[in-house]
Amino acid sequence: MNQAKQGEKERIKDTRLRYKGICPVCGAELWICKSIMMIDFGQNMGHGSCYQCNTFLHLTFNEDQQAFDTETWDDYMKRERKEKNEVW
Ligand SMILES: [Zn+2]
Q: Is the pLDDT of residue 52 over 70?
């Protein structure tokens, strides 16, 4: 019984560490661990592949919604290039 209780506790802890993002291509729900991403990247963004359609995604954490904003890597690169063009 103690072990089952411990397992339940671990599961709740695990769920709380993950934040939701929706794949812009196939609409799959992605649960992304923010703390690991923050440690790995040291910033409020990251990237990963959709587990369902395998699209490579750019991720930004949205503090207001406590969820991830997602966009395809292609869209992200297009936006980056556009921003740079405007600066130059
Ligand atoms: Zn997808």
A: yes
Residue 70 C-alpha to ligand 1 middle, in angstroms? 10
2 in a domain, yes or no? Answer: no
Q: How many domains does the chain have?
A: 1
Ligand 1 centre to CA of 62 (Å) is 19
Task: Please give the distance, rounded to the nearest whole angstrom, from the Cα atom of residue 72 to the centre of ligand 1.
Answer: 9
Within-domain flag for 13: no
| Contact call for residues 47 and 57 (beta carbons, < 8 A) | yes
This prediction's pTM: 0.67
Rounded-to-integer distance, Cα 56 and Cα 45, Å: 14
In a domain? residue 59: yes
